[in-house]
Amino acid sequence: MQTASFFKDLEFNDEHVAITPMLESGFTKEIRIAFKAGQVMKEHKTAYPITVMVLRGEIEFGLPEKCVTLKCGDLIALEPNVVHSLKANEESVVRLSLSKSDSVKRVNAVLNL
Length: 113
Description:
This protein is mainly β. The chain has one helix at about 105-110, and strands at about 20-25, 30-35, 40-45, 50-55, 60, 65-70, 75-80, 85-90, 90-100. The model has no long low-confidence stretch (mean pLDDT about 95).
């Protein structure tokens, strides 16, 4: 058994979004992304399906055909290879669920870290 809290030891970064691996199960990797208002994750895609949930705040989730506003409690799932971006309208905390085959290193690469 593993446990994690998306709000324990929560820290924001003035320079870029803060990406924190929270836990890894037999089938997913759970990542916390902490945004200060106005911070962006530029357009990117992944070879695996993902799920994104806003735990606090509000995010503009950019897709090729439209931009979707996600608020606290909203959830979106994407198939592989869908280009998307995220922008925080206010201080926000996001849960990113990755495939076990995906990597946190790839997520950090979006920010050029």
